[in-house]
Design goal:
This is Tetratricopeptide repeat protein. The chain is mostly helical. The chain is 69% helix and 0% strand. Among the domains are: 139 residues, no CATH class; 63 residues.
Length: 321
């Protein structure tokens, strides 16, 4: 199946981590009800960050991808998920998978993870995407945050080539690496190979999906983050990053989709990393754009809340200057 983020579930079960004692979603969830046909109707907008035409996981698609990726099907069957590739089983399996996505979009991240893991390789994308969101926005303990992100990376790596079957899976892995790279020391980042892995994986993802807003914004943020850590000269000579490339990636991201909160606050951060106070007006404008976006799912709600905190900090800093 296309949702093959953790293809070794059958032999390396994640069940031990399925009952994480995660905090409940802290914001109002009423607007994020995608029960019944609401999910299919809203799907293109809900998944717009993954790029155009991210496939809806209905029964027809489940059967198609089970045929296309026999190794994933084999592991799904071995995982005891109740789906063996037969068309008559696909409807039930698809309904369960759609419910995992509903939990992700609603902010029931622990439920999304637990229910996703029960579906074998087919449920790993929403399960682990929920884990990334939870780690980044709701886990206050840095050590635990890093553990959660490292777990995502570890199991994605175990999936091997199967991860290439899904652009969301590819993005989830590199997103986790990029966030760890921001917080870990330079020697640790170098030892883990993130400085070469992140651009390589983003290049591979963009080769497949050139207009994926998430990946483009992440690439721009990566360029800015390297400049922040090592400076523009070392960054350009050693890692091939530059302010011009940062601007190009964010520009492409905004042209693809301008209504994603994360793109605007990431750009505001990047402007500060690269230009300091010289582009403070532009950074302020993008933070204001981020907080003005009406979120349509739990992740976006957390992103808008994060942008609001950044905006208050930015305004307070400007007022004190």
């Amino acid at each position: 199946m296309r949702r093959t983020l953790f293809a070794l579930l059958a032999t390396c079960s994640l069940a031990a981590h399925a009952n994480d004692n995660w905090k409940p979603f802290p914001l109002d969830q009423q607007a994020y009800d995608y029960s019944g046909e609401k999910l299919r109707q809203a799907w293109p907008q809900l998944t717009r960050g993954f790029g155009p035409n991210y496939p809806f996981p209905d029964a027809d698609y489940i059967v198609t991808m089970a045929t296309k990726y026999p190794k994933a099907l084999e592991l799904t069957v071995a995982g005891g998920t109740g789906f063996s590739g037969k068309p008559e089983e696909a409807e039930i399996y698809a309904a369960k998978l759609q419910d995992v996505w509903r939990s992700t979009f609603r902010g029931d991240f622990a439920k999304a993870k637990a229910d996703g893991l029960k579906l074998g390789v087919g449920g790993q994308i929403p399960a682990m995407f929920s884990q990334v969101i939870y780690a980044l926005f709701m886990e206050s303990n840095q050590q635990e945050k890093h553990r959660l992100l490292e777990e995502v990376i570890d199991y994605t790596d175990k999936a091997g080539d199967l991860v290439q079957a899904d652009v969301a899976a590819q993005f989830g892995r590199v997103y986790a690496k990029a966030r760890l790279g921001e917080e870990l020391s330079v020697p640790v980042v170098l030892k883990r190979g993130y400085t070469s892995q992140i651009p390589k994986e983003l290049d591979a993802l963009l080769a497949k999906q050139p207009n994926q807003p998430f990946a483009l914004a992440l690439y721009g943020g990566y360029e800015a983050g390297v400049i922040r850590k090592v400076g523009s000269m070392v960054g350009r000579m050693t890692y091939g990053v530059s302010a011009d490339k940062m601007e190009q990636y964010f520009g492409r991201s905004f042209r693809a989709k301008d209504d994603l909160p994360i793109g605007h606050y990431e750009y505001a951060n990047a402007l500060g990393y690269v230009y300091g106070d010289d582009e403070e007006d532009k950074a302020l404008q993008h933070l204001q754009k981020a907080v003005a976006i009406k979120p349509i799912n739990a992740m976006e709600a957390l992103e808008v809340a994060h942008a609001q905190k950044l905006l208050k900090q930015y305004q307070a800093q400007l007022a004190s200057n």
